[in-house]
Structure formats: structure tokens, C-alpha cells
Amino acid sequence: MWVDFHWHARDWQEARKETITRSLALVEAAGGTAIAAMPNTKPPLLTLKTCREYLRLAPPSPIQFYVHIGLTADLEQVRRAVEATRQEPRIIGMKAYFGPSTNDLSLLETRQQHQVLETLAAEGYEGVLVGHFESPRYLRDDLFDPQNPITWSTHCRPEEAEWESFQDIITIAQEVKLKAKIHVAHVSVPEVADYIQSYRGPLRLSCGVTPHHLFLDNNYLRRPDGLWYKCNPPLRSPATRQDLFQCLEQGKIPIIESDHAPHCEQDKQGSKAASGCSAGLVWPYLISHLQSFFSAAQVHNLVFQNAVNLYSLNLEPRKATVDWEALREIQKQYAHNPFEGIFR
Questions:
Q1: What is the per-residue pLDDT for 344?
Q2: Residue 91: partners with Cβ closer than 8 Å, 6 or more residues away
Q3: What's the pLDDT score for residue 343?
Q4: I need a labelling partner for 190 at 20 to 30 A (CA). Which of 25, 59, 154, 295 fits?
Q5: What is the DSSP string of 274-306?
Q6: What is the three-state SS of 7-43?
Q7: pTM (2 decimals)?
Q8: Residue whose C-alpha is closest to residue 282's, from 27, 40, 14, 25
Q9: How far is CA 261 from CA 247, 269, 287, 294, in A?
Q10: Is 321 contained in some domain?
């Protein structure tokens, strides 16, 4: 009944955090149809060979498993990545990190960003380009206080970082006449959603929002387990969260995506506490909750059809119900559930 094309299945050197096998078991129990992994694995998914090796880790499953290939400042790697998407249909898109995030694949300099987008345009890439937007000009990660985790939201990664990064990339994309579909991952500020909804230029724009940015605000960072709510981009103020949900209600945000990014306890400690949460645990509870605000057709579009259309996939919802017993057993394997007790 749902798909999630923003999923960190980790594995390999980070199997202690998450694996493809457990991801697929979780999705099957939770009634999902497909997931697509992000490329900031260790090692990262940067070549056709590595992507195929990663895909081969998936056990037999009724869940469709896809990947994104990552982009670097190496323009030959960018060209090979375009070719990889044409040779392997399970590579359904590309990911560019226009801001620093977990397992750094960042493209932070304007020159790098321009060259990469110019290369994609020259290569005729017309598929999905997922972007992580946080301008380093506004980031002050050095101000993070692990004893007061809300500083990650209030001091380190302000809302302006996302908006300014988005504006920078849109300007470059228009200059180079990029044909790719630019998808803003985990949009966290309403200005970006407003811009995309009203945009009438030559670019193809989309955005997705996570359950945690929709339903959790940065006050969760004040809790005793506040470090577990540290993520990129951060949880925002209550007012911004409310505005973001209003954007969803108004049809300005077409896709809900989890950004499932589990960590184990040792990774969530101290000044270098990792960013990310196990948001993929929420799916069946989230869908039930959404039915209080949206029609069945609207929910279907938000959690399935719009994402399938964005990626031009021939995919039908899996005919399955939630296996609540299996789901509860899998949930116990995760160190933290960010939505525990929130959706009843």
C-alpha cells in the first residue's frame, strides 16, 4: 500500500545500524510495496558495479528493492553514473548532497555544483535527481551542545540553510538547462514547498516530506532521549512544523518519504552524535493517522502513487495486510522508535 524511496538500508560496514535483510522484513510486515536505498553507504554507491553488488545483498522478498547512485565532484564519475542508470533499471535515480550529511558525499562549493549539473545536462540525464539542500554558508555544527540537543535546530542548522541552498541549485539548474527531475528530499521549510507549487519555469521540480518533520517539532530535542531526534535537516519549530503540515494539506507537498536512517546507541552519544532516526517504523500507524485528515485517494497518492509517478515506475500496490505481530517483533530490534506512543 505504500512505497518509500528515501531509505537508508546501510549494511556492509554499517550492518550494526541496519541491513537490507531487516529493512525488507520490516517493509513486508508493515504492508509496504517497495523501498529505494540512498547511496551514502560504506562504501558508497558510486558505480554500476557497487550498486549491483549492493542489490545482490537483498534476499528473496515480495518487496521491490531499488537504489540511488551517488554523485561526486569527479565529473567522469558523474558521466559513468548517468550510464549506470541506463544499464540497470533498479538504479532509479541519483542523489546529490548539496550539504554535509552522514558519510560525507557532499558537493558544497558552487563551482562543483555547477560542474556536476552542467555535466548531467550535457549527458542528457532526464531521470530523478534527489537533492539534500543545506547551504554550508549557514551551518555552524561547532555550536552543537550534546547536553542541550535543541541547539542542533536553533544554532547549528537554521531554516535559511535549506532555502538558500535550494535557491542556489535552482539558479544553476536553469542556467545549464537541466532536464532531470529535481526532487527536494525531506523538505523542512514551507518556503521551498511554496516555491515548487507556484513554479512555472522550465525545470521539473518535486519535494517530499518526512513523518518526523510533519509531526515532531524541535521540542523533542529537549527530551531525555533528545539526541535520538537529531537529524539532517533538523526538526523545526512548532510554528514551522504546523506550516509544513498545512503545505501538505494544501497539496503543495506531493510525497511522504521516511528518510529511515537507524543508528545504534553508541552512534548517538556525545558531540559527534549521528543524525538520523528509525522513521520507517511508523508507516502503518502513519497511514491510519493520515486518514483523519485526507481522503483514501489522497492518502494513496501521498504514500504511493505520486512517488511511483515521479520515478516513472510500472508498480502496483502489493496486496497485503499489516502483520502486526511480526512488525512488533521487528520493532524490538531497533534501539529507538521516534514515534513510540505518538500515533494510537
A1: 65
A2: 48, 51, 66, 67, 68, 69, 84, 85
A3: 81
A4: 295
A5: PP-B-GGGGHHHHHHHHTTTS-HHHHHIIIIIH
A6: ECCCECCECCCCCHHHHHHHHHHCCEEEEEECCCCCC
A7: 0.97
A8: 27
A9: 24, 16, 19, 27
A10: yes
| Cα–Cα dist 46/268, whole Å | 27
pLDDT given for residue 103 in this prediction: 65
Is 180 inside any structural domain? Answer: yes
Q: Which three cell numbers stand for residue 88?
A: 540497470
* pLDDT by 10-residue block (mean), the chain, 344 residues: 97 97 98 98 97 98 98 97 98 95 84 98 98 96 97 97 98 98 98 98 98 98 97 98 98 98 94 95 97 97 98 96 97 96 81
Does any domain span residue 338? no
Burial of 290 by CB count in 10 Å (0-12 exposed, 13-18 middle, 19+ buried)?
buried
Residue 334: all three cell numbers together: 531497533
| pLDDT on residue 99 | 86
Domain containing residue 61:
2-331
Report the CATH number at residue 257.
3.20.20.140
Q: What one-letter code names the amino acid at 214? A: L
- pLDDT of 270: 85
Cell numbers given for 90: 533498479
Three cell numbers written together for 222 = 529537549
Residue 217 DSSP one-character state: -
Burial grade of 326 (CB within 10 A; 0-12, 13-18, 19 or more) = middle
Task: Give the residue from 39, 94, 92, 96 showing the smallest Cα distance to 64.
Answer: 92
- 186-203: buried (b, 16+ CB within 10 Å) or exposed (e) per residue? bbbbbbbbebbeeeeeeb
Classify residue 339: in a domain, yes or no. no
- Nearest in space to 40 (alpha carbons), one of 87, 97, 85, 88: 97
Question: What is the total count of domains within the chain?
Answer: 1
Q: Sheet containing 255-256: which strands, arranged edge to edge?
A: 2-7, 32-37, 64-70, 91-98, 128-133, 181-184, 204-209, 255-256
Amino acid at 146: P
Report the 3 state secondary structure along 145-213: CCCCCCHHHHHHCCHHHHHHHHHHHHHHHHHHCCCCEEEECCCCCHHHHHHHHHCCCCCEEEEEECHHH
